[in-house]
């Protein structure tokens, strides 16, 4: 009589264990990529319609610090002149980027005689992954495992070049544009030869 009694008390516990964890009753993962946007801002002295001496170098150093690159959106906020746009655009163009037409709203006022360079960056991630909350046992409610889809969607979020494409997609082109292909190669060649970039260039030179 002892063993059946223990089984009767253990059976409800096993059923509760199987029902715990993140629910997922469909064939699509409940863990989907989430895109977040962050703004970085730098105020520069721009009196007389041009950047003050040394400000272009400060902008370039700041760009290296925040690692501005492909997928980032760069814009100028404040009362700026065409000469200022040209100075800022020249620094940004070294890394294959163009200035956007409109700048997002940022906190704080811009001092007179200054312009604000704003970098908008999007990052994709999959919150809650990995998720091992649901046990690998018989599921009598038809749930897929709680970790289902985590690997695929996390890899997608890590590999997408422009996370904004996960939100609104990207317009396709009917034919390939040779200038677009050359632009990426030209940006690579003109980029500062540091780190992995330097190693790749040395390998290409040595492989001629």
What order do the helices and strands come in, and which of them pair?
Blueprint: H1 2-19, E1 34-45, H2 55-66, E2 73-77, H3 82-93, E3 114-125, H4 150-159, H5 165-168, H6 178-190, H7 195-206
Antiparallel strand pairs: 1-3, 2-3
Helix pairs in contact: 2-3
Query: Which spans of ≥5 residues are poorly predicted at pLDDT below 50?
Result: 4-18
Biggest sheet, spatial arrangement of strands: 1-3-2
Structural class: alpha+beta
Major beta sheet summary = 3 strands, antiparallel
Large-scale geometry: elongated
Helix tally equals 7
Output the radius of gyration.
26 Å
Strand/helix succession: HEHEHEHHHH
Written description of the protein model:
Helix 2 packs across helix 3. 16% of the residues are buried. The protein has a 3-stranded antiparallel beta sheet. With 208 residues, the chain is of the alpha+beta class. The protein contains 7 helices and 3 strands, in the order H-E-H-E-H-E-H-H-H-H. It has a domain of 87 residues. The longest helix is centred in the first third of the chain and has 18 residues.
Task: Provide keyphrases for this structure.
single chain; 208 residues; alpha+beta
Q: Briefly, what is this?
A:
This protein has 208 residues and is α+β, with helices and mostly antiparallel strands. It contains 7 helices and 3 strands; from the N terminus they run αβαβαβαααα. The protein has a 3-stranded antiparallel β-sheet with strand order 1-3-2.
């Amino acid at each position: 009589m002892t063993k059946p009694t223990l089984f009767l008390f253990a059976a409800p516990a096993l059923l509760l264990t199987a029902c715990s964890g993140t629910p997922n009753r469909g064939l699509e993962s409940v863990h989907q990529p989430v895109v977040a946007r962050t703004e970085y801002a730098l105020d520069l002295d721009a009196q007389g319609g041009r950047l003050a001496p040394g400000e272009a170098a400060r902008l370039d150093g700041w760009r290296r610090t925040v690692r501005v690159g492909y997928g980032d959106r760069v814009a100028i906020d404040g009362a700026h002149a065409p000469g200022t746009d040209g100075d800022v655009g020249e620094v940004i163009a070294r890394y294959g980027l163009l200035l956007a037409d409109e700048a997002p709203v940022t906190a704080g006022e811009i001092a007179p005689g200054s312009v604000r360079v704003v970098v908008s960056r999007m990052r994709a991630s999959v919150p809650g992954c990995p998720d091992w909350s649901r046990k690998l046992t018989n599921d009598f409610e038809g749930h897929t495992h709680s970790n289902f889809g985590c690997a695929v969607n996390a890899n997608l979020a890590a590999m997408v070049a422009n996370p904004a494409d996960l939100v609104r997609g990207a317009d396709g082109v009917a034919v390939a544009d040779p200038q677009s292909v050359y632009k990426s190669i030209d940006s690579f060649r003109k980029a500062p030869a540091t780190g992995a970039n330097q190693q790749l260039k040395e390998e290409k030179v040595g492989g001629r």
